[in-house]
Design brief:
Radius of gyration: 36 Å
Keywords: Repeat, Transferase, Ubl conjugation pathway
Enzyme class: transferase
Shape: elongated
CATH architecture of the largest domain: Alpha Horseshoe
Structural class: mainly alpha
Strand order of the largest sheet: 2-1-3
Protein name: RING-type E3 ubiquitin transferase
EC number: 2.3.2.27
Pathway: Protein modification; protein ubiquitination
Helix content: 55-70%
CATH class of the largest domain: Mainly Alpha
Distance between the termini: 119 Å
């Protein structure tokens, strides 16, 4: 038997509705059976439908008023500690900020995303923006709702500004818990976290909301295990998840300053699948976008394993490694470390073999501001290599970097001027660049030509 829906419970309304339905059925049958179009029957059917609609709306409004009234009565009795200080409403996902105050997650997130860095209630500056779930208050709210017949958590599929639901957060917590379980659980959870942090940028934010999330993710790699005890796929998934997290700007500082992160990335640079090593380099590159992280990564000694991986020459890893080294060497102290760790020799060798010339020339140009690096370049045959690239390449940027490095070498080491003069006499390499290069290339080439001409005049005079 069909249910009468909102008509149920009111005998008068139910009887009237049933009468209208019976009449409507007769009219519809007459319309369908009649070979001609029965306009009178159609008009009457429309009247029946309108009457039914009016009945339903009246009953709906009556019920809605009743429900809203009941809700207002119940919610007027909500304890103040269960209400969000920002929304003044019952909290569904209470979280604690750095000052110890509790707010409903979407409202405090909106406050923080607006650029505020203070606690709305106390006006204290927040030492960090991590939001910690207030499980005690949440349990108390759920119990209060149960006692008052409110199914708050079931009636609404709650989602915050980032599009994350309570189910997403429960899944996140469950996956992190599995990272401390059996090997099979760890592998399953690590793979899922890798996929989720790749597909859902909002999922990356969850790691920034708890101090324990990143250590939990890394726990399989941090339990004093030897490399051979960690499954290669598990390590690759964890390192790749770290890379995914690092892409999120708000995570960069937190990720880099988690004590185990940089040592584990350095370890991953030295061993594991080439994908793991490449992703570890990419993670260091991404994290080094922050100047404070450049210093932290450089001090940790990460440049040496990066340079070693560059020397190995894996095609899959070289671009990520070069990008990481370049970013780190923007900081003066890291240039010194890179030169000390053998970067000049390794980079020049790769350039001579015409491997990733664009990226590596940019690093070499950056290092050429260091006197020790310039001396090494001169000793390792950089002049001949750089001149040959200027002759061969059509890339204006590469020509510019080459002549800038040559300018520095020649002004540092007078013995190189003969080599430059021979090049000019044979190929007119420097003159051509002074005529057709970029503005910076023209300036450097002209400076070298001026010095060469002066040397020639001095020789003729003598």
């Amino acid at each position: 038997m069909a249910k009468s829906g909102v008509f149920e419970g009111d005998p008068g309304t139910v009887a009237k509705a049933m009468e209208l339905k019976r009449e409507l059925q007769k009219l519809v049958k007459a319309i369908v059976d009649d070979e001609d179009v029965n306009l009178d029957a159609i008009d009457r059917a429309q009247q029946m439908l309108s009457a039914l609609k009016e009945l339903k709306l009246k009953k709906y409004l009556s019920l809605n008023f009743h429900n809203n009234h009941s809700r207002e009565v119940v919610f007027s009795a909500v304890p103040e500690e269960f209400k969000c200080p920002l929304s003044k409403e019952l909290m569904r996902d209470p979280v604690i900020v750095a000052t110890g105050q509790t707010y409903d997650r979407p409202f405090i997130q909106k406050w923080l995303k607006s650029g505020n860095r203070t606690c709305p209630r106390t006006q204290q500056v927040l030492s960090h923006t991590i939001l910690t779930p207030n499980q005690l208050i949440k349990e108390m709210i759920l119990q209060w709702c149960k006692n008052h017949g409110i199914k708050l958590s079931d009636s609404v599929q709650y989602s915050d500004e980032d599009g994350l639901t309570g189910a997403d957060r429960d899944q996140f917590i469950s996956l992190l818990e599995k990272m401390s379980s059996t090997m099979s659980d760890q592998k399953e959870a690590a793979k899922e976290l890798r996929l989720l942090t790749k597909r859902m940028p909002s999922f990356r934010t969850l790691f920034g909301e708890s101090r324990d999330a990143i250590p939990q993710l890394l726990s399989p790699l941090s339990q004093n295990k030897s490399r051979n005890e960690v499954h290669p796929d598990l390590r690759e998934d964890i390192i790749t998840t770290l890379l995914n997290l690092s892409i999120h700007d708000n995570n960069k500082k937190l990720v880099a300053e988690t004590p185990t992160v940089i040592p584990l990335l350095m370890d991953a640079l030295r061993s594991g699948t080439i994908e793991t090593r490449s992703n570890a380099a990419a993670a260091l590159f991404t994290l080094s976008a922050l100047d404070s992280n450049k210093e932290l990564i450089g001090k940790s000694g990460a440049l040496k394993p990066l340079i070693d991986l560059l020397e190995e020459g894996h095609l899959l890893a070289m671009k990520d490694v070069a990008s990481a080294i370049f970013n780190l060497c923007i900081l003066h102290e890291n240039k010194l470390r890179a030169v000390r760790d053998g970067a000049v020799r390794v980079i020049l060798k790769k350039i001579m073999n015409r491997m990733h010339v664009d990226e590596l020339l940019s690093i070499l140009a950056m290092l050429s501001t260091n006197q020790k690096a310039v001396e090494q370049m001169g000793e390792l045959g950089a002049v001949e290599c750089l001149l040959s690239i200027i002759r061969e390449t059509s890339c204006a940027r590469n020509k510019e970097n080459c002549i800038a490095i040559l300018f520095t070498i020649c002004y540092s080491d007078r013995s190189k001027w003969k080599q430059m003069r021979d090049e000019e006499n044979t190929y007119r390499t420097i003159s051509k660049l002074a005529e057709n290069g970029s503005s910076r290339a023209k300036r450097k080439a002209s400076g070298i030509l001026e010095r060469l001409n002066r040397a020639i005049n001095i020789t003729h005079t003598a």
